[in-house]
Design goal:
There is one protein chain. The chain contains 16 helices and 26 strands. The protein is an alpha/beta fold. The chain folds into four domains: about 80 residues, Alpha-Beta Plaits; about 190 residues, FAD/NAD(P)-binding domain; about 120 residues, FAD/NAD(P)-binding domain (3-Layer(bba) Sandwich), CATH 3.50.50.60; about 120 residues, Enolase-like, domain 1, CATH 3.30.390. The strands form seven sheets. A five-stranded parallel β-sheet has the order 7-6-5-11-21, with helices on one face. A hairpin with a 7-residue loop joins strand 2 and strand 3. The radius of gyration is 28 Å and the shape is globular. The protein starts with 5 loop residues before the first strand and ends in a 14-residue tail after the last helix.
Length: about 575
């Protein structure tokens, strides 16, 4: 057999998640006529090495992998003069999309949801990626945001319900709350998810190089980290955001809790003031109130959840106040003092009267600001808005053609699923050209209070501001059978429709587990469905999602005059 009788291939395999997947890929490739040797060095590698006769077509290998349910891309093809079964010298990683003078195909700055989404997409394309991260791996969501907060919110919901008596003959009581043990369990969950969803995931992509340090941009684009400089044709910025506090006199000197430090408390205060009545402030205020803390929430705007539908805000206010949460709106904080007993806040109320609040601890939840200072954006002419958020176009591209931005550091809605989506789009466009756009149509939003607030599309006010003629209906949960059997009828479902066509424009839900229902409305809005079509759909009986059907039916009929399941 001649020295050129064989070819060697390295394939990038996408979709393997276990040892069985690696076996399936191996077997599929072995079935291709002319294949002499197949090696898949573990599913985590995402690779397959094939030695085949020279006449074997590359497409035959790709097709075989596809028929097994995976995707393949050829990273390297070379003559194999040594033949199958013989030891080989280590081969360098392929560099299919990089100029010879560059160090990487793509540099990703940031190690949170957006950064990981970008790095994974790039690695799936076969690119060499440098990920630079300054903070804990995993970013805000897993470490100090979504995961720990929702864990404690769920725990306090169970604790709160133990003190209720919803069903005759069923008695539960609230025993002692061991906050320290609960937060230790929360920390263990965070550590486990950080390992399994970030550290272990990173290890599964051998073309991604991870380094810890603060990055700074320079012309090229070049990225400087820990005294070294790295070059790549494209860069994705995914540096996230941090808690922000308004410039209230005395606040910085007094010190305060943020959403980060509040979730790390090892003991509970007796009294707490929360500044900020949007999602984070509302969630944490209720969480601590249910743990037995006397909480006062202060919001400068006329209502809590100020960016949601006004009817939604009123409904949520009613239920939070019923639990004992004190809410002050149209309240401006003029000054903050720290005393030996705690904090003293001087407020101006809606009627112009002054008021003083005293509390053991103070939590500031007034929003977040992008982590863009010190990145060197000015050196590359990258534009930001007044908050420091990086301006991006529909392709996630900044004002520099070789730099993209994703997640909370960009001028995008600050949701983790938006971060992941924009990270994927940014990496795909950076490597393959601007073909993918950010799709934020009918974006779902959830406030994880109890009852939850879940919304999508236009509010009634937004629709009217756009000059649309609208028709709205609001259904109380007391008309939803599932809510009756659950002995929990807190909340409403409000639908906004175009008055002429009946097309669904917006859905706004206050209900237990509203976040589990809203995606049905998202799909209906994206599909351009009318409320009449939604009302005629089949929904499973005794589910909360059936409330969407009933709310849609109110555009045509009186649902109080329908029997159960009547369509």
């Amino acid at each position: 057999m001649t020295a050129q009788a064989h070819h060697r291939y390295i394939l990038r395999i996408t979709g393997m998640t276990c040892d069985g997947c690696a076996q399936h890929v191996t077997q599929a490739l072995q079935q291709v006529p002319g294949v002499l040797q197949v090696r898949v060095p573990g599913w985590q590698s995402g690779r397959a090495e094939v030695v085949a006769e020279a006449q074997v077509r590359v497409q035959a290998l790709v097709d075989a992998v596809a028929q097994a349910g995976y995707r393949a891309r050829v990273l390297l093809e070379e003559p194999d003069s040594e033949g199958p079964g013989r030891p080989r010298a280590p081969q360098p990683q392929p560099t299919p999309m990089v100029a010879s003078e560059a160090d990487f195909d793509l540099i990703v700055i940031g190690g949170g949801s957006a950064g990981f989404a970008a790095a994974i997409r790039a690695a799936e394309e076969g690119a060499r990626v440098l990920m630079v991260n300054q903070g804990p791996i995993g970013g805000t969501c897993v470490n100090i945001g979504c995961v720990p907060s929702k864990f404690l919110i769920r725990a306090m919901a169970h604790y709160h319900r133990a003190g209720e008596a919803r069903y005759a003959g069923v008695h539960t009581t609230q025993a002692a709350l061991h906050w320290f043990r609960l937060t230790a369990q929360k920390d263990a969950l965070v550590a486990d998810l950080r390992r399994t969803k970030y550290e272990d995931v990173l290890a599964a992509y051998p073309t991604v190089t991870y380094t810890q340090g603060k990055a700074r941009l320079a012309p090229g684009p070049t990225v400087q980290v820990n005294g070294a400089s790295y070059r790549a044709p494209k860069v994705v910025l995914a540096t996230g955001a941090r808690p922000w506090a308004p410039p209230i006199p005395g606040l910085a000197e007094a010190g305060y809790l943020t959403s980060t430090t509040a979730l790390a408390l090892r003991s509970l205060p007796r009294t707490l003031v929360v500044l900020g009545g949007n999602a984070v402030g509302l969630e944490l205020a209720q969480l601590f109130a249910r743990a037995g803390v006397a909480v006062t929430l202060v919001e400068r705007l006329p209502r809590i959840a100020p960016f949601e539908d006004e009817e939604v805000s009123r409904e949520l206010t009613r239920h939070l106040e019923a639990e004992g949460l004190r809410i002050l709106t149209r309240a401006r904080t003029e000054r903050v003092e720290r005393t030996p007993a705690g904090y003293r806040l001087h407020l101006t109320l809606a009627d112009g009267q002054t008021h003083t609040l005293k509390a053991e601890r103070l939590l500031v939840a007034t929003g977040r600001r992008p982590n863009t200072a010190g990145l060197g954006l000015e050196a590359l002419g990258i534009a930001t808005d007044r908050r420091g958020a990086i301006r991006v176009d529909e392709y996630a591209r900044t004002t520099h053609p070789d730099v993209y931005a994703a997640g909370d550091c960009a001028a995008l809605p600050q949701f983790v699923y938006v971060a992941a989506h924009s990270g994927t789009v940014a990496a795909a466009n950076a490597l393959r050209g601007d073909h993918h756009t950010l799709d934020l149509n009918a974006l779902p939003r959830v406030i994880f209070t109890d009852p939850q607030v879940a919304t999508a599309g236009l509010t009634e006010a937004q629709a009217r501001e756009q000059g649309l003629a609208v028709e709205v209906r609001t259904l109380a949960l007391e008309h939803v059978p599932q809510a009756l059997t659950a002995r929990d009828t807190r909340g409403v479902i409000k639908l906004v429709a175009d008055a002429t066509s009946g097309r669904l424009l917006g859905a706004h839900i206050v209900a237990p587990e509203a976040g589990e229902v809203i995606q049905t409305a998202v799909l209906a809005i994206r599909a351009g469905m009318t409320v009449h079509e939604l009302g005629r759909m089949l929904f499973p009986y005794l589910t909360l999602s059936e409330g969407l059907k009933l709310a849609a039916q109110t555009f045509e009929k009186d649902v109080t005059r329908l029997s159960c399941c009547a369509g």
